[in-house]
Amino acid sequence: MPTPIDPTSLGFLLAENRNQPMHVAGLQLFEKPADAGPHFARELYEAALDTEEIAPLFRKRPSRSISSLGQWVWTDDAEFDIEHHVRHSALPEPGRIRELLELVSRLHGQMLGRERPLWEAHIIEGLADGRVAMYTKLHHSLVDGISAMKLMQSVLSTDPDRRNMPLPFDARAVRSKKVREPSARDLTSVPMDTLRSAMGLAADAGGLPAALIRTLNKGVKNEASALSFYAPKSIFNVNITGSRRFASDGWALDRLRAISKASRTTLNDVVLAMCGGAVRNYLIELNSLPDTSLVSMVPVGLKSRGSDSEAGGGGNAVGSVMVKLGTDLADPADRLAAIHASMKAGKAALESMTPNQIVAMSALGMAPSLAIPMLRLNGVVRPPFNLIISNVPGPRSTQFLNGARLTGTYPVSIPMQGMALNITCNSYAEDMCFGLTGDRRRVPHLQRLLVHLDSELTALEQAVGA
Amino acid sequence: MPTPIDPTSLGFLLAENRNQPMHVAGLQLFEKPADAGPHFARELYEAALDTEEIAPLFRKRPSRSISSLGQWVWTDDAEFDIEHHVRHSALPEPGRIRELLELVSRLHGQMLGRERPLWEAHIIEGLADGRVAMYTKLHHSLVDGISAMKLMQSVLSTDPDRRNMPLPFDARAVRSKKVREPSARDLTSVPMDTLRSAMGLAADAGGLPAALIRTLNKGVKNEASALSFYAPKSIFNVNITGSRRFASDGWALDRLRAISKASRTTLNDVVLAMCGGAVRNYLIELNSLPDTSLVSMVPVGLKSRGSDSEAGGGGNAVGSVMVKLGTDLADPADRLAAIHASMKAGKAALESMTPNQIVAMSALGMAPSLAIPMLRLNGVVRPPFNLIISNVPGPRSTQFLNGARLTGTYPVSIPMQGMALNITCNSYAEDMCFGLTGDRRRVPHLQRLLVHLDSELTALEQAVGA
């Protein structure tokens, strides 16, 4: 039964083109169980191909025809072919993380075909250390990045003895009640109906950005608010190409916590300080550091203010804070302090915002890919911000898939026109996992950022005496 | 220095979309030399990355801007990044040909990004038998399929002791004089200027199909000619999707020659008979065999008729013959005889054609992707033909790359709207190599055709007593 495509989801489909694929992904690394045979990856792949029933989210594809009166609708793929979606790949010798990231970079640069359900899962073998990787890619019209990570993690178990476990596209995963099938409404914490009525949106995608801009433009005028758009021009804020580079690594949460404790800042501040310092040193190497601080858009959770907030509804709303990363400051401790202050001011501003402003902010956080090109086209010459840094909490306990221990889980996100770099972090067990996704051409040597993140962590430890 | 894009090349760029990528490719298999270390593939890859100078064909990308007055031009890629074009891949266990074909199928379904030069070369390791594969993909706006195969083979050597050899994109390969840099004019044996003036074409791509159709429509009325379009409807003649399936294998030329000799037919007739029988049995399995024979378009070389033919120019022209494949006949020998007669009649018709008809035919052979959608849109409800079978002569002697013996060379071609299956053969040394490229969804279980090709060869041997 065809169902109409929600305007926000439709926006992601319409905003997509060769240079701006609109999918999110996750890279998970697993350590094979002690009792695994030599063909663990192949067995995982073949079990996936044998999935008896695919969850509805993974069976629907966008279509538009005379019978749908020219409207975009989701239809069930009558010719669903699991072999198209689940793939078995391998890394060339010597099978380092470098070869894995190279493969993930390539996979992430490829647009999903519209004639099929908009997802792929790649089971990847050939890591020299014996680990097996899984790269799972979903179109943003199906789920947002945070929900995608949650979905991938939701099928895992803390029980290392479980076997024959369903993967996220398996209808069993949904039926187990542990996982709720995500929908456009579930996934974004902001109720879309509220968003739409608050902004007086017509039920078509064309209307969303225009209304959004009107509200955002009001925000621009309020310099003190979390919506201030005073970011310098940077190499990240240019038009992008269709190819991607992905880099990822993890650092012990204990190290970040110690810095947080010693400096009386939050864990999130420390993550932002690592990113700020790394980006600073990266840009210095490229002789491209702006004089004033880069500004990051940072999505944050907001406590519901009940009837006080139209956006709040019954649950939690997602807002965004514009954080100055202190890239103009040479001292790591100064940067951390500046970030802490900027985040605090941004959150306070968010608290004082009108419901309409929060709704606009939520929309920006939820659908920056829709909003950014609009902002650029609306006479804001300077970028509204320079990059997006998200920090998504993940599972605190060790997770297993068919006895294979999850050793790391890294979000792969969406660079956009005017926003060539995205950093998304995912905490897991004892680590903070960083996923850096950039345009291959506009963010040269992206993998250097990993080196800088590592040295920045050490520099922060020394600076605050952790 | 930007140069205008030839209308034919531009046609391939404009005809391209997600469901119809317009690139051709070749798959080459190499046996490592006896003295090769364990990292032969990686060394090949790293040497390729170190290429000092890239040949101009492989450096140019299409662009359109105000400075080119809105015209499409080729520009040199100022930010050329060899790592984007040359890639190192591996096959998952168990590393059979099946895993290789699966990877090639996926690679072939991916559109080349317009922001870069339109080619990729993949060096693939992980075959269980130790061989190394190379999949080289070029956009049809750069070269046609035949020229692509010739280009890939041109850099090889009969000398197994040569090392440090250039790959096709290496400027050294062009400078060695053994290889001429292909251009739109060189590559198609039909002089484009002649083609254009004969058909009164305006210098834009929009004009080409319209003029072509006028000439082709004349041909349709001449039932006896090689242009007769009386093909039945078949499962291959439907709209296609963006994903591909590729299958390939080779058979000893001696076996084909023995059948040709015993039946007094040509080697090409035997190739067509293998294809006809295989397609017949494939369609029977799918319960989809049309009552009347399938018709294949078969590009053929034409001897120049000098001033007699406008298309002839000073060289050879390429024409096409519509061949009935005898898929309505149960006996392999009957099919072979029918194909022989059909091909003979088609060639005779071609000889008697007017220069304008030959030009139109040449254009159809050269650019079916442009012509077919036009034919479909011009009221010809039945397909003009059912599939395309090409047979491209390759090198007769054993070829080497850095001491690695070429064991097979398979063309990967372009399925099109209304033409979901393409078979292209390439003779090499002692083998006839078949490359079958189909739409993954519209040509189900494409690999079954390999089984049918094999049993058809045996059936032909028995039928003609070879």
Automatic annotation (TrEMBL), chains A, B:
GO cellular component: plasma membrane
Occurrences of domain O-acyltransferase WSD1-like N-terminal (ranges): 10-271
Catalyzed reactions per annotation: an acyl-CoA + a 1,2-diacyl-sn-glycerol = a triacyl-sn-glycerol + CoA
Enzyme Commission number: 2.3.1.20
Any coiled-coil regions, as ranges: none
First-level EC class: transferase
Keywords, in A-Z order: Acyltransferase, Glycerol metabolism, Lipid biosynthesis, Lipid metabolism, Transferase
Tagged with keyword Hydrolase: no
GO biological processes: biological process involved in interaction with host; glycerol metabolic process; response to hypoxia; response to nitric oxide; triglyceride biosynthetic process
Domain O-acyltransferase WSD1 C-terminal: 315-460
Pathway: Glycerolipid metabolism; triacylglycerol biosynthesis; Lipid metabolism
GO molecular function: diacylglycerol O-acyltransferase activity
Record-stated family: Belongs to the long-chain O-acyltransferase family.
Name of the molecule in the record: Diacylglycerol O-acyltransferase
